[in-house]
Amino acid sequence: MLPAGTPVVERVARWSTHHRAAAIFGWLALVALAWVIGTFTPGTDARSSPAGDAGTGQAALDRQDAREPFWENVLVPRDSPATTTDLVTALAASGAVADIRSPLVDPAQVSADGRSGLVTFRLLGTGTEIRANLVTATAAVDAVAARHPGDRLAQAGDLSVSGAVDRSIKEDIGRSETRSLPLTLLILLVVFGSLVAAAIPVLLAGTTVLATFGLLSAVDNWIPVNSATSSMTLLIGMAVGVDYSLFFLRRVREERAHGVEESIRIAARTSGHVIVVSGLTVALCVTGLLCTGLDNLRGLTVSTILVVGLAVLASVTVLPATLSLLGDRVDRARIPWLGRRRTVATRSRFWAGVASIVTRRPALWTGIAAGLLVLLALPAIGIRLQDPAPTESLPRSVPVIDAAARVQEAFPGSTMPAHVVLWSDRGPVDTPAVRRAIDEFTARTPKPAVVVPVGDALVVRVPLGGSGNDEAADRTLTALRETLLPQTIGRLDGVRFAVAGRTAEAHDFTAQVLDRAPYVFGFILLLAFVLLLVVFRSVVVPAVSILLNLLSVGAAYGVLTLVFQDGFLAPLVGFTPYGGVLGWLPMFLFVLLFGLSTDYHIFILSRIRERRQAGRPARDAIVEGTAGSSGVVTSAALIMTGVFSIFLSLAAIEYKMLGLGMAFAILLDATVVRGVLLPAALSLFGDRLWNPVAPREDPSRTFHFS
User: Cis link prior to 453 (omega < 30° from 0)?
Assistant: First the structure.
């Protein structure tokens, strides 16, 4: 019988150890149920709505009874009219396309330098017919290319480029899945020295991710969940699932002299409580993304909360039950030369030495470490938020991307045109007056422009120049919205317009992110302060923690800017810089890193406070608390760093950015920040950090934060 006032986490863990079968099979049943729900629940794959004016235009198109058609481009040499004629004839005979535009007939289809021509066509059909017709059209293009080996043809368009991007994403996700598991297991083998002990966190994290994907499949009727969200959910789930299990299992090993059941009880009261608080911190922090009002970030928020919540649940229920069932057998299958040394948890002599040094001269080391982080953060002053175009996202070794890049070079902006949507609340908008206004409008825009009927609406596809996503394209987009459209289409009574398309969506997305950023940052900072204030009952602790987190995030921003925007180490990382940083990444990094950094902070501060409450002097408590916790924090950080570093090996530059940003920030946070800056900063305040606690008090009854 547990005494009154026993923490809830300890009660749950004790129930699990006394009802091991119920806890273990209950977890497996939950995972199986989530998988069944996700597999057999019909989903509609909710579509995210773009932000701003682009979202208005897309919503107008979604209300039509027809869908905007897909267009393809084929770049041809201008000095080979026979090849162009053969291509046009072959496409017309294929029966898969319509509205073929040839440079032999339309001067707008000739490049500015006169060396290239562009054959454009619309794919026929609906649904699966469209992709079948793309295959047919591509086969016709390939046949023409084979008949004219001296002329190089390059096909790239709406569907071919998006298909290449989708295939690359799926391949990247597959590679991340196959590489993350062995790497995680290898690190855990080194940490624990036992195959059984190393397998437990991996199995718990794997079942957590499986259950999360099942539940996400059920809710995607209402919440947009795309491939990028699924990939990030996988890595976040593996990272936090393994970390939480590592924290709990490490504490059990520290207390193993008390026996199996008692060591689990102590771990539940201490590390178990930290896991719950840490998981709650991450979950609450990511809710800050909802302040942006962006649909795709809403999906990422829900998926992160689900996977973190399930990881916490597994750590305080099925993990204690499993450890109770295994007992000392958890150390079976020891690794030679590692097993004997790793099966007993000990303080880290390295971090004890570092903490001892920095706490002797805390002001000096605080200044050095903080100065290093500020220096790393300086490049972020010039950060430019810009999403890459498909030709910038993937390497040109992908044939379709190379073709799109060649089309882009000859006809700037043609691979990412603006979609000017025209509609009326009074009915069909395709009238002679509207057509005259469109002619006036397109006469002042880059060429070639295409007018496409979509239900009762019209879409004018206008190249924006530049790369489609750079400053030149943004200037053209602004001119369309603020000058050209109001002066032409805007003069017509009852006709509404909006500019959609990839460039407009990226531009409006970034604008909304920047507009809502103060609310998100303010929410996270206030939340972190209140949470740490409640946990540690000290104003100084949350203030120091927030300052350190800001320095760590700022350093990550600086490195991202230096590497991906300025191109430092670009050949080593394997990408071509495009002059910007992914629009949503800084905000996502801020939210997630604040949550994860607070995890480590709570874990280390809890150990320090535990020793202070046991009567140790302030400096000794800092040194011993850091030594007793930094080893496991470093191991957990290495796992997270390794998992996120896998993104650097993927093809898409977006994944490389996310991987480098997360891996660098986590590693920096667990070493320089938590190993050097934190103990040095705490030493500056000494006993002013904590409420006085009598040395004779039993820390097991007064302390519930470790």
Answer: no
**Distant-in-sequence, close-in-space partners of 230: CB < 8 Å, separation ≥ 6:** 173, 213, 216, 303
Radius of gyration, CA atoms only, the chain: 29
Q: CA separation (Å) from 360 to 119, 199, 352, 357, 408?
A: 73, 40, 12, 6, 60
Largest CA distance in the chain: 96
Is 317 in contact with 246 (CB distance < 8 Å)? no
Listed in sequence order, the residues at least 6 apart from 603 whose beta carbon sits closer than 8 Å to its beta carbon are: 247, 271, 274, 278, 629, 632, 633, 706
Dihedral angle over CA of 103, 108, 112, 117, nearest 10: -20
Label residue 120 left, alpha or beta by phi (over 0 means left) and psi (-120 to 50 means alpha).
beta
Q: What are phi and psi of 459, to 5 degrees?
A: -125, 125
Percent with pLDDT over 90 in the chain: 34
Q: Which two tokens stand for residue 669?
A: 């946070």
Q: How far is 207 from 201, CA to CA, in rounded Å? A: 10
pLDDT digits (tens, 9 = 90+) for 4-59: 556 788 889 899 999 999 999 999 999 999 988 877 776 555 556 788 899 999 99
pTM of the full structure: 0.82
How does pLDDT run across 28-42, given as a tens digit for each residue?
Answer: 999 999 988 877 776
In angstroms, the CA 580 to CA 74 distance is 29
Q: Nearest 5°: CA angle at 108, between 103 and 113?
A: 85
d(CA 216, CA 218): 5
**Which residue type is seen at 442?**
T
